[in-house]
Specification:
Blueprint: H1 3-12, H2 14-18, E1 21-26, E2 32-37, H3 52-59, H4 62-71, E3 75-86, E4 94-99, H5 102-112, E5 118-127, E6 133-145
Antiparallel strand pairs: 1-2, 2-4, 3-6, 4-5, 5-6
């Protein structure tokens, strides 16, 4: 599927649509994604700031999706674990940026070449438009070369 088509479909996915999460951009080569969580009346918590579950939801699938599409069909790629540290209340729209570079892909390919599982942590921040850090997120993905692609 083309990245532009995927972006449009993901923005219509009910968990994102209902919670005002939007994939703003997705590069054609799946190396970069930018996401926004708009602060709306329906997604505020009791004290009026961004609901923590939505902050995590806005970043949850992206490291896995970028790795899956960049590594290709010869690899299993799954989410393994996730952590979020709330730094400050989000009282406005917040943003997350993901960039999966070629060097990291090469590391994953080399580590998975023998057929064993690879667990890799990725980190990024959720910020306001002015750059204030609202949360720090860590996601761990699982990568493994599929049996049919392993060299004997």
């Amino acid at each position: 599927m083309k990245a532009s088509t995927f972006r449009r479909l993901l923005n219509l996915w009910p968990p994102f649509l209902v919670n005002a999460i939007r994939l703003q951009s997705l590069s054609d080569d799946w190396s970069e994604a930018k996401v926004v969580l708009r602060l709306r009346r329906r997604n505020r918590n009791y004290v009026g700031s961004q609901f923590g579950g939505n902050l995590f939801a806005m970043v949850d699938p992206f490291w896995m999706l970028l790795a899956m599409h960049r590594l290709g069909p010869d690899y299993y790629v799954w989410d393994q674990a996730g952590m979020i540290d709330f730094v400050a209340p989000g009282r406005e729209d917040v943003y997350a940026h993901f960039h999966l570079d070629d060097a990291t892909l090469d590391e994953l390919r080399q580590a998975a070449a023998g057929g064993g599982k690879v667990l890799r942590w990725f980190e990024n921040e959720i910020t306001t438009a002015s750059g204030e850090v609202i949360a720090r997120v860590r996601k761990q993905i699982y990568v493994r070369l599929k049996p049919k692609a392993r060299q004997l």
